[in-house]
């Protein structure tokens, strides 16, 4: 099903869309706009999935054992020392 709609484009947007059609990349302005909306939909879905995954990670971390700032500093220092020893991090 398709829905006809009237939209407004800025002059640069219209020039860009027409150039895509004239170059043969798209068959019509509608095709350009449909592709643009599809890419925006995909981007939004990917961002929603990323936010959900980050929320799960934060929830998992918050429900796990807590360590002191001093212990975290010590862990980071040990990790840096290991990386430097293996040559994976500059000094």
From TrEMBL:
Tagged with keyword Heme: no
Record SUPFAM superfamilies: Ribbon-helix-helix (SSF47598)
One of the protein's GO biological processes: regulation of DNA-templated transcription
InterPro entries from the UniProt entry: ParD, ParD_sf, Ribbon_hlx_hlx
Protein's UniProt keywords contain Glycoprotein: no
Keywords per UniProt: Toxin-antitoxin system
Descriptive protein name: Antitoxin ParD1
């Amino acid at each position: 099903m398709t829905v006809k709609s009237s939209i407004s484009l800025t002059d640069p947007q219209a020039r860009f869309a027409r150039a895509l059609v004239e170059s043969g990349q798209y068959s019509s302005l509608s095709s350009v706009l449909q592709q643009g909306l599809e890419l925006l939909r995909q981007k939004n879905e990917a961002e929603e999935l990323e936010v959900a995954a980050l929320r799960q990670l934060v929830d998992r971390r918050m429900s796990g054992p807590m360590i002191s700032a001093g212990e975290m500093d010590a862990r980071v220092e040990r990790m840096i020392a290991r990386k430097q020893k293996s040559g994976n991090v500059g000094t």
